[in-house]
Write the structure tokens for this entry.
Amino acid sequence: MAESKAAVLLGSSNKPLSKPAHALTFAAVLEELQTNDDTGITPADAKERLSTYGGNELGDGAGVQPAKILLRQIANAMTLVLIIAMAVSFGIGSYIEGGVISAVVVLNVVVGFWQEFKAAKTMDSLKSLSSPTASAVRASENITVPTVEIVPGDIVELKTGDTTSGDGQLETDEALLTGESLPVRKDPALVLDDATGPGDRLNVAYSSSTVTKGRARGVVFATGLDTEIGTIAAALRATGSKVRTVKRNDEGQAGPHRYAQAWGLTATDAVGHFLGVNVGTPLQRKLSRLAVLLFCVAVVCAIIVLAANNFSSEQEVIIYAVATGLSMIPASLIVVLTITMAAGTKRMVERHVIVRNLKSLEALGAVTDICSDKTGTLTQGKMITKKAYIPASGTFTVEDAKEPFNPTNGHVTIIPNDHSNAEKAPTGTNFTSFDTSLARDDAHLGAFLDVAALANTSVVSPGQQEGEWHARGDPTEIAINVFACRFDWTKSRLVGGHYPLWKTKVEFPFDSDVKKMSVIVENTHTEEKHVLTKGAVERVLDSCADYHATRSDSLNATIMTDQQRQRVLSKVEEFASQGLRVLAFASRVAPPDLNYEADIDRNSVECDLTFRGLISLYDPPRAESASSVADCRRAGIEVHMLTGDHPGTARAIAIEVGILPSFVQLKTLAKDVADALVMTASGFDKLSDAEVDELPQLPLVAARCAPHTKVRMIEALHRREKFTAMVRSRRPSEMLKY
């Protein structure tokens, strides 16, 4: 579990390492952090490191600051002009007008202050993301310590359900950082390239991610603000430099006038920031400039009135001049705007939206670009089986499925195996509606569904209401189980009830080394035992000795040749190009000499398998995503997808919801434009700000994104004078700043 300060974008740590931790072996990280895998560090060492590196916390910043919130309500040009007008009114004895302006100012300040104060309190309550305690090994003893006292070099032990205390080297949910809908399996033996992005660092577990499966022991290499989640917290608080840089010549020198210019611009920026003429939303800036303009006009009008009366010092002349000036100031405008925004904020709260500042509400109406996460925002965040390929039967496709847990939603079509290439299929035979009740008539489909239903640990069941379905388990397993249920091939029917057809004898759970999971089941009627296996395509194919080529060869299998393996891999590439995740199914009759009372070597049963087919899954778009993207386009708003998912999946979903043009339209674009539309985070991060600004088009899709990639995208849009909104359905993240 490790990260690095020397190169924050590449994986940082409190103590600079020779390379980012993910590019080192576990032993090398231990050595550089001067710790031991078995004994950990000593309590004295821990105390010293805590003093050196600070506590493992993101820092509270300044917390909720009522004084600053109050100052923000006052420090804008319109309010300051009203305060000046109020003072002048009282100064000349116009108490009624002064009282009215006072009421306007107080109402505006109170409403704005109360709304932002409540939002700030809510945001402050969201900052606690870590476990209160952690299990660490110190001086050979396993002790429980407060998370805040975890230091670099600590050996920590993690188990299912734990929240990681620091970045370190299991299967974890990293949606907080990457947006990935599925848990990520970790492999501590990996040594990765220095530039590997956070979403691909499979040997590192991140602080604040949740362990979804397994147990592990890891070494902490980053804590507090040096973790990936810490960089998000730091970006959230960053305000940017307020001092203009001094322009220098080619030799790095600058004359006195350049220093005067830099300080003059800095002072101008500070005044403009205070008055609000160069910060805030477009409407806020316009109002602030209007206030300054009206103030100047009011002063000019007052001077004209005084000049017309030869600058007489009589009270009537002064009152008339001041009244003329005050008449130019729309005292009620600011209150109308504030009350309108407060009312809008209340409506947003009713829809469970936190409005951090009142200005954010107006900002929504001024956006020119929207940067959206994919998983759970544009998509449902749940897996659905889209296609299944069975060599002897054909390619089955699930059409119009919108409810991930409901096997009765949508329908199944088939391209028979003699027309499995849709482009070569005769017209009218490409997609034939398939009657799922006839599954028992196809032995090969039945064998495929046996694997789907029985080599599965999820549960899918109907609810109490008609059309209501529930599921629990791993999202991938659920999607496969729902597909089997479409054919009434339910696990409850096969292994449940008084007369079950199958009985589970042994289960081999998914293993990251072999990338397969298997079960041995026994037919209760024939007592014949079968091995059912599913897993990564390449690993399953390597374990297969034969397959069934046609429906008629239900007894005699065909030898699995390299040519057939390549044909299957081509089908995998076809599915992957559509944004689908692909798994392979296989089975065999179990060896007769197995001793079920002793441990069974899985290698002895996960071999000489019969290939049964492929199943492909995807996270479907929300029903409203495509229409929402189209609405944005009609409104002149460009939508960008920033996702932690793989490029192929991201591209396919982006085309499906309308963010990207179709594959055919992409080919008609200039190469540099087409290449810029879809980029990986690694490619985008390698570009300097100047190179990003020279791109003909900023990416509409950025895949494998880390948090800092999203921040850079927002900043690039800002440099192009775009007004940007970030849409994300998950937990508070780096985009709260924007």
